Amino acid sequence: MKKNIIPTIIAALALALVVVVLLWPRFSSIPPGGGGACTMEAKLCPDGISYVGRTGPNCEFAACPALVDKYKDWKVSTDEKQGITFKYPDSLGTEFVLPNDWPPIITISSGALTCEEGESITDDGIPSSVVKKVIGDRTYCLESGGEGAAGSVYIYSSYATTKSNKFITVDFTLRYPRCENYIEPNKSNCLKEQKDIDLDGVVDGIAETMSFE
Fold it and tell me: Superkingdom of the source (predicted)?
């Protein structure tokens, strides 16, 4: 009777060994023999956006994407009187919309950010407004308006925000031509440029690069 039990025990042990070998990779962070699945972990990269998981025979975290300086080609401006340094683009990369004063004027003061939103229309039909908006992870109060001239409209923009417990305003004026005065294809190109220009991104980049003495 005992002789009949021994083969059964051996078979059961062999089956158990096979099950362990098959299931081990699911419960091990380092797969045996360099194969199998890694644990489902994720690591946040220094850019604060990207995540990487474990991979390879040793289940090590994959390399994070290289940090890219989005503003490496921007110019540096230093205001020693206010103790501030910031970067700004040499141009807006536009053909029709052109700066009337550039780089922007940066003003540093104390106080909290407040924004009384509203809008109106001037006698020339040019809109004037105060709006609160979030750009990236920063809140701004944008005041804008303008005045007409021969064939153009001059629009001023004043972005107010806070950084490092300081109240900051970024002011500039741009010249917008009246696109209807152009013939095609310049008319369509002018309208598209005025629609697509990303002033919010430029201003937020300037604020991001600001440093204080």
Answer: Bacteria
